[in-house]
Amino acid sequence: MESVNYNSSLQTNRFEQLQSQLRDRWRGIDIFDEDDRDILVVPSFSFDIREAKKIAGLLHYEERLLFSLIRLRNPQTRMIYVTAQPLSPLIIDYYLQLLPGIPFSHARSRLLLTTTYDSSIKPLSQKILERPRLVERIRKALRPGKSYMVCYNSTVLEQELSLKLGIPLLASSPDLLYWGSKSGSREIFSECDIPHPDGSIKLSTVEELLVAAAQLWQRQPQLKRMVIKLNEGFSGEGNAILDLREIQNFNPSAATLAEIIAALSDRLEHLSFQAKNETWANFSSRIPELGAIVEAFVEGEHKRSPSVQGYITPTGEVRILSTHDQILGGPDGQIYLGCHFPAEAAYRLRLQELGIKVGKALAAKGAIERYGVDFIAVRHSNSGREDWDIQAIEINLRKGGTTHPFMTLKLLTNGKYNYDTGAFYSQEGQEKYYIASDNLQKEMYRGLLPNDLMDIIAKHRLHFDTSTKTGSVFHLMGALSEFGKLGLTCIGNSSKEAQALYQQVENVLDAETSILSHDNLAGVGKPPSFMWGLQKVHFY
After folding, report:
1. pLDDT > 90: what percent of the chain?
2. Beta partners for 488?
């Protein structure tokens, strides 16, 4: 396959001309979705392959964009959805049955599903490009001048596919990828004067990493821990913790830089890696390839991990979509597990302000479509008054783990986000809350087929109720059988109701999958580990 030469000004101009079609047609984020359009959905996780392997069931994460099928409620919309392997028809039926006011058959007639039949770990966009006949079939199915492409993240692969199909890509140019990296994020935060932890920008060798870490410890001798992050790590899986408390009887204030480097070097083999089975040998080999940063670990007894999601229109307008409190797991709380909406009222409006700053900086560099900013919030008591210290951690210049639950809420309720309060209201004016996760995962769930899950949903009434606009919406159903892993968004009229819905789903699945084991069944009523995380986040 002949690759597009992205150094060519001709190719760059072609891509910019395609993107300009979005600006020319843009009439607002909501109106745009109501137009007569063909939408090509390519849910490709185009990340470094070795990093992608750290995510259990990554191939099935293509299902996270199935919320896009809800756009078929517009009778003029047509959609092509591409996956690496065929999706179970039952999964597609499940989503189409959620459509309000549109007959199932009408929506299904406007949906074209196609697949590469390739289960390798390579990005889906690469698999499509390696099949020129498939590319041609997709091109012929799209209406010229009325089509655009959406993806999970934008790289040269998605750009090349956009060029071969001759349709615009509703995403930032791959030339801007750096601003979504760990190092690029820190540069944006400095540019916007947004508080963020002390640390470094991109480092390319272990030697540079040691020097930067030593200098950081010199600047902050009271530090207890540092975080070392691969510059292009995903979902916290590329993070490692350097615990300075384990370097006993060492005073960085009284040591030379060389002595500090030597002390830190001895601890590299003993980093606390967030990804399972990670080793220093493998981690360090990635530093020259991906780059890395080191930054101060934000300590705090009362600490949370909120985020803000924004949208940059093709015309450069910046809008806030939502705020969340993220739920993190892993050995040191670095891995994304899920979220609940909205973020704590005490700081959600502050998150919006900081999110707008970041969005404007990204828009000035030419970025479009979704972006997210992750923070650490630490609660302090000052003179009897509680304040939250907000530190920005990183920017995600792509869709993220909080994208699909919020869009599911928006598309199912026809509601709106209120910027003045940071709350979301249904079309009827009811405030909405949800808890979402990609990681409801247990060994005993292995072997469940999508059909089995549908039986369980029907039997225990775990569905989303379109009359009350409450209930549970499932995704990652294809990952259940092999990985025992499921995703879900539980929507309620209060945070307590959303949590109760999540608890109900987990209790039911535990009971259904341990029905043959009396010992296992006896423990069903106990609060599950993931929900303990939710309780810690939600109940202050």
Report:
1. 69
2. 437, 474
Share of the chain above pLDDT 70, in %: 90
H or E stretch at 453 = helix 450-460
Neighbours of 204 (CB within 10 A): 14
Distances (CA, A) of 332 to 271, 328, 472: 11, 9, 29
- Tokens coding 277: 């089975």
CA 509, CA 515: separation in Å to the nearest integer? Answer: 10
Return the H-helix or E-strand segment holding 521. Answer: helix 518-521
Q: What is residue 61's predicted lDDT score, i.e. its pLDDT?
A: 86
Cis peptide before 405 (omega within 30 of 0): no
Q: Encoding tokens for residue 472?
A: 């549970």
Q: Tell me whether residue 370 is exposed, middle or buried, using C-beta atoms within 10 angstroms of its C-beta: 0 to 12, 13 to 18, 19 or more.
A: buried
Q: How many Å apart are CA 302 and CA 319, to the nearest integer?
A: 30
Residue 163 CB partners (closer than 8 Å, separation 6+): 4, 11, 14, 15, 18
Rounded to 10 deg, the angle between the 206-219 and 257-265 helix axes is 120
Cα torsion through 279, 285, 288, 289, rounded to 10? -90
CB burial class (10 A; 0-12, 13-18, 19+) of residue 265?
A: middle
358-392: pLDDT as tens digits: 999 999 999 999 999 999 999 987 655 668 999 99
Tell me which DSSP letter residue 68 carries: G
Please give the domain boundaries of the chain with CATH numbers for all domains: 9-171 (3.40.50), 198-296 (no CATH), 303-538 (3.30.470.20)
Cα distances (angstroms) measured from residue 194 to each of 179, 351, 403:
15, 11, 23
CA gap 473, 102 in Å, rounded: 18
Query: What is the rounded CA–CA span in Å between residue 278 and residue 330?
Result: 12
Omega prior to 331 cis, within 30 of 0: no
Q: Are 78 and 39 in contact (CB under 8 A)?
A: yes
pLDDT per residue as tens digits for the range 507-518: 999 999 987 444
Give bridge partners of residue 387 from the DSSP assignment: 380
In this structure, the chain runs to a length of: 540
